[in-house]
Structures are given as structure tokens and as C-alpha cells.
Amino acid sequence: KSIMDELYEYFTEFKLPAKLRISVACCINMCGAVHCSDLAVVGIHTKPPKVDHEKLPAVCEIPTAVRSCPTGAIRADMGKIQSVEVKDERCMY
């Protein structure tokens, strides 16, 4: 949010010379496509991410989220419809 707060005027007033791709990844494996972005933000977890099972289907494609984790820490949650679980022992935190 703080990055977009700073860049908001550039997006609303078209001050940038071309398209700007901003990506955010949650670990150093860079599964958020930060390697092919103009501006990349990599956050380092200090503990495994928590999953909000109610909001997840509305903001994320489950198969894409599962495939994007290079360590296999994110898996489909078989007990819940349209959700994932995080295997703490495989997470890069």
C-alpha cells in the first residue's frame, strides 16, 4: 500500500513513459514474477503466512497459487472448498 500511495499520481496522470510492471513476492524464491518486472518488492517472512479461507477464492486463483510456490509449501486444502494450506516445514520463512 505504501508503494502505491507514493506512485498514485504517476498512474492517474500518466506521467510514466511506458507501462510499469510492479511485482511483489513473499520470499526470496521470487515466485511473484519479480524477475521480469520493472519494480520488484521482495518481502522476507519471519513466520509462515496465514490463510484467510473466506477471502482467498475472491482474490486468488487457487491452482496458480499452488503452482507458483517453488518449494511446494502451498497445497490445495482438501478439507475446504476453494482454499489452500501452507506446510510450515516446507516454507522458506
Automatic annotation (TrEMBL):
GO MF term set: heme binding; iron-sulfur cluster binding; metal ion binding; oxidoreductase activity
Iron-sulfur listed as a keyword: yes
Highest taxon of the lineage: Bacteria
Keyword vocabulary terms for this entry: Iron, Iron-sulfur, Metal-binding
Domain Nitrite/sulphite reductase 4Fe-4S: 2-51
InterPro entries named in the record: NO2/SO3_Rdtase_4Fe4S_dom (IPR006067), NO2/SO3_Rdtase_4Fe4S_sf (IPR045854)
Presence of keyword Iron-sulfur: yes
Protein name: Dissimilatory sulfite reductase subunit B
Organism listed in the record: uncultured sulfate-reducing bacterium
Gene: dsrB
